[in-house]
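Here is one such tokenized protein:
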Amino acid sequence: MTELVHNMYWREKVRAAFPEWGAIILGFAAMYVPTFYSLMTGAWSTEEQAHGPIILGLALWLLYRRSDLLLSGPSVRHASAALPLLVLGLLLYVLGRSQQILLFEISSFIFVLVALVWFKRGGRVLAQLWFAFFFMLFMVPLPSAVVSALTMPMKMAVSWATEHVLFWFGYPIARSGVILQIGQYQLLVADACAGLQTLLTLESLGLFYMNVVRNTSALRNVMLAILIVPISFTANVIRVVTLTLITYYFGDAAGQGFLHGFAGMVLFVSALVLIISIDSLLMMVVRWRQGRAVPVKGAIQ
């Protein structure tokens, strides 16, 4: 019954807001539906950029949670500060779409969306929705030169850690750069297994978790944000170890086939488990510090 009332309330809100937002939504869809179709059938279908639709979906869900601000928030008559951002977003769209520059095309989506919310609802509402737009930045691909420069040291580190972990457990493994030799099989640690995009994806996952949980302790938030980097590295090592063991026991076809995708799931599940575990530990530390800060009744001051 409660869900039915909520759905009716939501439909009424949408119906009331359509005269104001209808034309904007149709124009926005006309611009960006082809863009996202191209992404879904192109870049986002590759393993390196597969996090894109996940980031977009989670960001839109964050906006949906605060849809009351968008549908029935205070209207703003003068929001001229949003105009330069809108113009910039439209220029990036034209340049990115015409020249097939993915960085510009996705960035334009964020800038135009921010400008429209700013123009229609003002800076106060935009400030309350800032994390959703910040979160979208993680789906913007970085320049390939930057990715290549930062990915190689990360792959070397993950390969080194994988070699030592499996050698410690007694497996016949050796390493040459980012190539692992285990038994009769050779594995190349690819960019998707231990690259910068994977690190950014896991970083976004941690920030999303922090936003949903809404920790009130600044120490807990800062420490968790910092620790997400070693958590991401550890999750990458777990993924490569898993792929290596799958190849060792079931052959190269299994390692490169369906079970390779399964190892990707292992990456995100292990990262999420590590994030939740460390956050729980940090929560215990914060409570312990707060308990020590409270003076004991009857104690000599």
About this structure: Residues 94 and 100 are 10 Å apart (CA to CA). The first helix runs from residue 2 to 41. Residues 296-301 have pLDDT under 50 and may be disordered.
